[in-house]
Amino acid sequence: AMLVQREFDRVRKTPLEFSKIFYRRLFEADTSIAPFFAETDMEVMGVKLVKTLAYAVENLGDLNAIQPVLV
């Protein structure tokens, strides 16, 4: 858990850059899902992605806390 938390600090420092790379790679891996995001503000979506990941990483030791957020 500590390794993941330490490495995630790099994501926290550049959340928009991380989310742009994440979604670019996602759409490259499966082009069929890109249309579902056509009218989505990807900056807002990226912030939500990083916040959700941050919550999960911060609570790695408490799966009961993470489960409701990720479902």
Can you describe this structure?
It is a single chain. By secondary structure, the chain is an all-alpha fold. It has four helices and no strands. The protein has helices at 2-13, 15-29, 42-58, 63-70. Helix 1 runs antiparallel to helix 3 (42-58) and helix 2 (15-29) crosses helix 3.
| Unreliable parts | none
Helix content: over 70%
Q: Strand percentage, roughly?
A: under 5%
Q: How far from one another are the termini?
A: 21 Å
Q: Would you report the number of β strands?
A: 0
**Arithmetic mean pLDDT:** 91
How many helices? The count is: 4
Largest sheet: none
Radius of gyration (CA) equals 13 Å
Structural class based on helices, strands and sheet pairing = mainly alpha
- The secondary-structure element order is HHHH
Shape: globular
What characteristics describe this protein?
single chain; 71 residues; mainly alpha; 4 helices; 73% helix; 0% strand; globular
Layout of helices and strands:
Blueprint: H1 2-13, H2 15-29, H3 42-58, H4 63-70
Summarize the structure.
Helices cover 73% and strands 0% of the residues.
